[in-house]
Amino acid sequence: MRVIDRISKSKSTLFSFEILPPLKGKGIEYIYEGIDPLMEFKPAFINVTYHREEFAYKKREKGYLEKIAIKKRPGTVGICAAIKSKYDVITVPHLICGGFNKEETENALIDLHFLGIKNVLALRGDAIKTEVAFVPEEGGHAHAVDLVKQIVDLNKGIYLDEEIVSPHPTDFCIGVAGYPEKHFESPNILNDIKYLKQKIEAGAEYIVTQLFFDNQKFFDFVKLCRNNDIHVPIIPGLKPITTKHHLSFMPKFFHVDLPGVLVEEIEKCKSEEEVRQIGIEWTIAQSKELIKFGVPCIHYYTMGKSEAVKKIASHAF
Known about the structure:
Layout: H1 3-8, E1 14-19, H2 28-35, E2 45-48, E3 54-59, E4 65-71, H3 76-87, E5 90-96, H4 102-114, E6 119-123, H5 144-155, E7 173-178, H6 189-202, E8 206-211, H7 215-227, E9 234-238, H8 246-254, H9 260-268, H10 272-293, E10 297-301, H11 307-316
């Protein structure tokens, strides 16, 4: 089933979450351990992120440099297929511009179509650590809107090889990212909305937001989208704070603000367990308010750890 169809058939707020592929060396059971505790909440879909390979250059004899992969995660396509088979749940692989050329993107989409996976989240992706700014792969896409257009072409049966006989169209439902506090590279929120609208006009059918801790920023974002003729479902993304380190990590990594009252309460904590409890309670309150607002779904970023999200979902759903 396509995500947009699952949303349209529901009369109440749905539950979904996102997982990270494990680093090399870990098996599929690691993934299942993070999913099993959340299946009681009947997730509408499960997102599987994609992380580019990262490399370092190590000096060898005679001054030669050897390119070594320092970060490698198992294939998102295979993980989605395994989850779909085991749990009979909609899986949504992330598809990114970074690290892929157009042919590799098409091949990934062909594999997904063959496996019966009908949903993708189309993202530009972040710059790797060795890049000052995002650099597209040679022959690849520089922007998410171009990735959306390629997927839409495939849905029409338009492949890169124009000589394919009787090309078979795909049927992907395309989601894209939205930023209630704007993308950190955008000069302002209206500029960000302009590019978000381009992705919707290109064929994206729903939006999943970056995480946020102030619901008013999400409400303002939805209003701004609607005022700019963006009328697709907008799914809020949430993540609980679970450690005091998140006070500095979240703003730096996700480019979001933390409400003053939340920061003050966490700074008073004398243990990480107290921090975790406050983070969970804050996200429960966020979830309940968003459900009351009538959001189509709440998407939780688990980062591979399901315990906190399970506690939140048990109070909110």
